[in-house]
Specification:
mainly beta; 3 helices; 24% strand; globular
């Protein structure tokens, strides 16, 4: 839910001007990741999971992705680190998708909620258990709803024409107060080079809770 939108476009292929390298993109480095091991679920630093689709869940958008969260070293509660790729191997991220990608990350508010199944210290065990059973991780609901009040996206680098299989995202909140929070999102490519930056402000509202039970396929009527 956005109150309004503005768009400014430029040609990234023809931009020129003063440029300097930034040796410290992230304040605190994420655990190292071997993308081949991530794909095989054998990287000891990251644990992968996806969630099933549910027509009534506002999380259904993220059911198209596979997420990888830190398995051991936890970030501060106000930070979400995640590697992301499509749940189906034949799909890849394009530059045009970055606006959607920037909005599909686990809200750090869950880390402060005692009974949340989406806390960063709970996800590794839940994901590992689902992996053993060769299942998706269950969770159609979050503790709260997070409607977006404003969102800014600046694309710094085009993705390859053939698309990118992997992206890394870090979301950091500075102020969580009076039912509202901000988030700065950095999107990096597989080489940890900046692809896009986003700033968002969201509300914290009541959320419809959907029982976390596997859905049975509908039976056809004769």
């Amino acid at each position: 839910m956005l109150n309004g939108s503005n768009s400014r476009n430029t040609n990234l292929d023809t931009e020129k001007g003063i440029s300097y390298p930034n040796p410290k993109i992230l304040d605190g480095q994420p655990p190292p990741a071997d993308l081949e091991k991530l794909a095989n679920q054998t990287d000891p630093n990251w644990i992968g999971y996806s969630i099933p689709w549910h027509s009534h869940s506002f999380l259904k958008g993220i059911s198209h992705y596979q997420y990888f969260s830190p398995a051991k070293s936890l970030t501060p509660a106000n930070i979400t680190d995640v590697w992301i790729r499509f749940a189906t191997a034949d799909q890849k991220f394009t530059t045009e998708m970055l606006g959607s990608v920037a909005d599909h990350w686990r809200r750090m508010i869950e880390n402060y909620t005692p009974n949340s199944v989406w806390r960063h210290d709970v996800i590794p065990d839940r994901a590992a258990e689902a992996l053993k059973k060769r299942q998706q991780i269950l969770g159609y609901s979050t503790s709260y709803g997070y409607p977006t009040l404003s969102m800014h996206l600046e694309i710094k680098k085009k993705l390859p024409a053939e698309g990118a299989e992997w992206l890394f995202m870090r979301a950091r909140s500075t102020v969580i107060k009076n039912g509202r929070f901000d988030a700065e999102i950095v999107i990096l490519d597989k080489n940890l080079e900046v692809v896009a930056l986003s700033h968002q402000v969201s509300l914290i509202t009541k959320s419809m809770q959907i029982p976390d039970k596997p859905r049975r396929p509908k039976q056809s009527r004769l």
